[in-house]
Amino acid sequence: NARSGHPGGALSIAEILSVLYFKEMKIDPKNPGWDERDRFVLSKGHASAALYAALALRGYFPTAELMTFRKIDSRLQGHPYTSTPGVEITTSTGCSLMGSFCSTYPA
Description:
Blueprint: H1 7-24, H2 48-58, H3 94-104
Helix pairs in contact: 1-2
């Protein structure tokens, strides 16, 4: 519906996200701030469409919201932002990722 984005990147990570979000990760969509949760950082932020699909199907937000992908004022943009439920850190390029992560989760 968005007619833009990076569908190849999203498709290349779909299987990994399925296994992580539905089999491996300790997460609770009803309590996204749970201290003991596992955290996932999508370093290739341009693959956000797949992450949003996994988050919606896991219950972080209604699946109908997926239809707002890349629309003005949507929480679901071309790169993940922390305003989206279930997104731990905003990502865009790899070079900015490490600084963002370190400032969000200091040692």
